[in-house]
Amino acid sequence: MIPGVNGPQRRFYDNLQKTRSIIECSFGLLKMRFQCLTKLRVKDPSYSANIINCVALLHNFIIRTRLEDENDDNEFLLIEN
Question: Where is the DDE Tnp4 domain (predicted)?
Answer without folding.
Answer: 9-60
